[in-house]
Design a protein that fits this description.
- GO terms for molecular function: methyltransferase activity.
- This is Ribosomal RNA methyltransferase FtsJ domain-containing protein.
- With 299 residues, this protein is of the alpha/beta class.
- The termini are far apart.
- It is globular.
- The chain has a domain of 201 residues: Rossmann fold.
- Strand 4, helix 7 and strand 5 form a beta-alpha-beta unit.
- It contains eight helices and six strands; from the N terminus they run H-H-H-H-H-E-H-E-E-E-H-E-H-E.
- Strands 3-2-1-4-5-6 form a six-stranded parallel β-sheet, sandwiched between helices.
- Helix 1 packs antiparallel against helix 7, helix 1 runs antiparallel to helix 8 and helix 5 crosses helix 6.
Length: 299
């Protein structure tokens, strides 16, 4: 590796630390009560006002939220029953429902690509193209990426079905390697070599899955915490941050210079994700010469 590349990847490791510190910082943040601070002084309010001015899609979002709130949500007695049914359908999907979710993710990926070309890998050697999907199930995004880059090699991680994970419906392919494990337990890849014996998950942390030189043109980080996932009690209040941090840290460490990351976020106006987007833009423009596409779900 050249000295330039070494310096660049040292910057990547620094950026990973910044991501970790930023996410940890959100734990300490609390909105001031109304008696101490008005809503229009909160970070979320400032981000919301900016998005309302600059993003037409976000301008329509409050109306959709209010409509859902009235028809199926908190202002309707049937709202709890509706959302409970939705959760049960997602948690216990039969083959028909699973195929529906798979097709839905492929369609979303298609629409994203039509607008941004996000899944297109540029390079002179198609047989050396590489894709990493940090949380692959059901496989719709990876299926889209492989349709657009048919010669690419791909690695996908997914929570095992025995631990509450979903089925991967991606057709078997010799260029695709699937690993069924909990990525938040990749302690060695995250730089933790010594686990205290008294740790609740001491016997569950996993050995290295990535080589130090392994790089990917496209990294997909769209994993979400599953209600069906059985995990230690200490993880419950921080699992969403654990999963986000793991995907970002490993994704940043193993994305190629000039590569692309696709990251799923919820509620784009929140302080936490506003900070992440700002940090991501800073990394892209000053350190990696890469691109991050934030897939935003603001419901």
């Amino acid at each position: 590796m050249s000295s330039y590349s070494e310096q660049t990847w040292y910057s990547v490791y620094d950026s990973v630390s910044v991501v970790q510190n930023a996410l940890q910082g959100t734990v300490l943040y609390q909105e001031a009560p109304a008696s101490q601070s008005s809503d229009n002084q909160s970070p979320s309010y400032a981000i919301t006002q900016y998005l309302l001015r600059e993003v037409p899609e976000f301008w329509r979002l409050p109306k959709l939220r209010q409509k859902a709130k009235c028809q199926k949500g908190w202002e309707n007695p049937e709202g709890d029953q509706f959302f409970e049914k939705q959760r049960k359908t997602a948690d216990n999907a039969d083959k028909k429902t699973a195929k529906h979710f798979f097709r839905m993710m492929k369609n979303i990926g298609h629409d994203m690509h039509q607008m941004t070309d996000v899944f297109c890998i540029n390079g002179l050697n198609p047989d050396k193209q590489a894709i990493l999907d940090m949380c692959v199930a059901p496989g719709g995004f990876l299926a889209t990426a492989l349709r657009i880059n048919p010669q690419a090699r791909a690695i996908g991680f997914s929570l095992p079905k025995s631990e509450g994970g979903h089925n991967v419906l991606l057709p078997k392919h010799h260029n695709v390697s699937l690993k069924f494990l909990d990525i938040t337990l990749l302690a060695t890849d995250m730089g933790r070599l010594d686990i205290p014996n008294g740790h609740p998950d001491a016997g569950k942390f996993l050995p290295r899955q990535f080589s130090s030189e392994q790089r990917f043109d496209l990294v997909i980080c769209d994993g979400q915490v599953l209600r069906t996932h059985e995990r230690a009690t200490y993880r419950e209040h921080r699992e969403a941050r654990r999963l986000t941090l793991t995907q970002l840290a490993l994704g940043l460490e193993h994305v190629k210079l000039g590569g692309t990351m696709i990251v799923l976020l919820h509620k784009v106006e929140s302080r936490r994700y506003g900070m992440l987007q700002h940090l991501g833009q800073t990394i892209c423009t000053t350190k990696l010469s890469m691109s991050i596409v934030w897939t935003l779900i603001s419901c």
